[in-house]
Design brief:
Low-confidence stretches: 1-10
Strand content: 15-25%
Distance between the termini: 59 Å
Radius of gyration: 20 Å
Helix content: 25-40%
Largest sheet: 10 strands, mixed
Strand order of the largest sheet: 7-6-5-4-3-2-1-8-9-10
Length: about 375
């Protein structure tokens, strides 16, 4: 079906949407930013979801990635996928895949799901430790086979942290042999359960080791027809940008071309952002177009300039283009956006001056979904 023509679309519209269908989950991941497990109170009904799909199509959404919790645990997940496809938008999914059976994969494909990204966070022992369920690694690899067998595009995604840092090359070989077509890599962020384990988080200076390794894997992957893509909370303007991104990083997309939906209808500019500071409204209270256009919680990145940045980012050569990088990561680390420590260019500049940055947790997270603590950023001589 052809996509709808958007009449009177604003300068910014949510081309890419990530929708948490339910917070219910069949895993208990120790690094889960949303602390998923039980469903939220008053999650959207099927009728409300169908209405929201129509609203998304009317303001120019092109792709919806369904997540959880675990999206397939929503009782109407197949109907929601089918409604998305019927509205002319591309439905995809990110899943822990503990129970992504061949039957579920075939049902999803028939409903119109086009691609599925399976979260795989290391080799078997590491993945099962992080996911807190023995057997979850084997289930995830089996799911990739089921997804491909149903005619959908099999992809993978990985959170990089101290537990799996030394396994990335071996994990790439596993994913290559499993037939993935794309692999998204990102850093474990200090939110939710991951905020309770600061010792698992990488330090900013470790970008100096990580980025060349990712670049080398990305070059190998291209020879196999596989795209290795860096998410928006690592990288930036080092020598590997062209290998890990289709184009150089161009500032935070939250509320500009990205939209996040929580399962109770709360709307924010990016699915990763913590809820309390960034939810701009609920679709039960206001139309989606109004929330998107007029709520400051969603518009914060649209007119950001160098003047809104602070710390190293404000004086950076790339400040006018990058505009402080990933808002989610900087806010959950340092309490506000505009100063992003996990930057390869930044680590290189500091290294040339014989310096480095180190993060130390000062305030623990309170224990709520999408919560975070507070870190102090220390600049020191590099050993």
């Amino acid at each position: 079906m052809s996509r709808r023509r958007v009449v009177g679309a604003p300068t910014y519209h949510p081309r890419y949407v990530v929708w948490e269908l339910t917070l219910k989950c069949d895993l208990a991941c120790r690094h889960c930013g949303s602390r998923a497990g039980r469903p939220r109170a008053e999650e959207l009904s099927l009728a409300e979801c169908q209405d929201l799909i129509e609203q998304l199509a009317s303001i120019g959404a092109q792709e919806i990635t369904f997540i959880g919790g675990e999206a397939y645990l929503h009782p109407d997940w197949l109907s929601i996928i089918a409604a998305t496809a019927a509205a002319g938008m591309r439905p995809t999914m990110t899943t822990g895949a503990r129970r992504m059976t061949a039957e579920r994969a075939e049902q999803a494909a028939r409903a119109g799901l086009e691609a599925v990204s399976v979260s795989i966070d290391g080799l078997q022992a590491t993945h099962d430790l992080l996911r807190a369920v023995p057997g979850s690694w084997r289930a995830a690899l089996a799911a990739l086979e089921h997804i491909a067998g149903a005619g959908m595009t099999p992809c993978a995604n990985t959170q990089i942290n101290r537990l799996n840092l030394d396994e990335l090359e071996a994990l790439w070989a596993v994913l290559r042999d499993a037939g993935v077509k794309a692999w998204q890599v990102q850093l474990t962020g200090p939110m939710g359960r991951a905020a309770d384990r600061p010792e698992w988080l990488l330090q900013p200076y470790e970008m100096l080791d990580l980025m060349p390794r990712l670049g080398a894997m990305a070059a190998q992957a291209k020879q196999h027809g596989v795209l290795i893509h860096a998410a928006n909370n690592l990288g930036y303007f080092g020598p590997y940008e062209t290998l890990l991104r289709a184009e150089p990083f161009g500032s935070c997309g939250a509320g500009r071309y990205v939209l996040g939906i929580e399962s109770n209808g709360d709307i924010k500019g990016c699915p990763s952002l913590p809820s309390a500071p960034y939810v701009g409204g609920n679709i039960r209270e206001a139309p989606l177009a109004e929330i998107w256009k007029h709520r400051a919680e969603l518009a914060f990145a649209r007119d950001r300039s160098r003047a809104d940045l602070w710390g190293f980012c404000q004086g950076c050569y790339y400040a006018d283009v990058c505009k402080g990088g990933c808002s989610w990561t900087s806010h959950t680390l340092l309490g506000r956006p505009g100063n992003m420590p996990y930057c390869h260019h930044r680590a290189q500049e500091l290294e040339r001056a014989g310096r480095r940055e180190r993060l130390v947790r000062e305030v623990a997270a309170p224990g709520d979904p999408f919560d975070f603590g507070r870190f102090t950023l220390i600049e020191e001589d590099s050993p």
